[in-house]
Amino acid sequence: MATLEIRDLHVSVDTENGTKEILKGVDLTVKQGETHAIMGPNGSGKSTLAYSLAGHPKYTITSGTVTLDGEDVLEMSVDERARAGVFLAMQYPVEVPGVSVSNFLRTSATAIRGEAPKLRTWVKEVKSAMEQLQMDPAFAERNVNEGFSGGEKKRHEILQLELLKPKIAILDETDSGLDVDALRQVSEGINRVRENGEVGTLLVTHYTRILRYIKPDYVHVFAGGRIVESGGAELADKLEAEGYESYTKGGASE
Ligand code: ADP
Ligand code: MG
Ligand code: MG
Asked: What is the residue range of the signal peptide feature (predicted)?
């Protein structure tokens, strides 16, 4: 059973005004089969945590450790992390001009599985996953994220999630910009992946509404670059009612 362990993680970025520390000692353990919601105000460092775990070059780890089953994740390249089973659905997915969704998915699956999926079963797999996400088959021939609507981008992220079957899935604001129907379809996709109990999910979100569809095992409040409170699903209800104000007083959020 895969376990992601984050210990005292400190992360900085270079800005025009010098180096800025954004993550100030994050501790978190995510096991396969568990769902953790990371909730917090804008600017608290949630996306920085997601990018740091995925290996984005912009973020410098200044101290702390991240391991997956004891293996040092921070030593791995972005590709190695993906092959090890770490998946990131970005808050703002990037365009990949000239690469169709269909080719992108097959190339990713080949890289992660270590061999090309058999064409017949692969085509069926993709078709069925797309149907479940209510995606038009023609979508597969479009270039990745080029001209995609907000909802299409998020569906495409969940399509990747369903086909790539990671051990640890980091979903950054997958709910943002979705209307009610899209939110439900995307959430159902995430739940299908969770059902087999083989994925550990880090659900990063500002709003509690996605948690009506996806029940977290743990909720963590993120403020000022750290987890400041952890609890069960009931903590999300408290946040829904009270907001983040009590955590950000005294400038805790930045
Ligand atoms: P959240 O996802 O919780 O809204 P972010 O991780 O996006 O927070 O940002 C946390 C803080 O770090 C913000 O003050 C943001 O401006 C800053 N920050 C994040 N990424 C960068 C970057 N690449 N360059 C400069 N500042 C950054
Ligand atoms: Mg933000
Ligand atoms: Mg963010």
From this structure: none
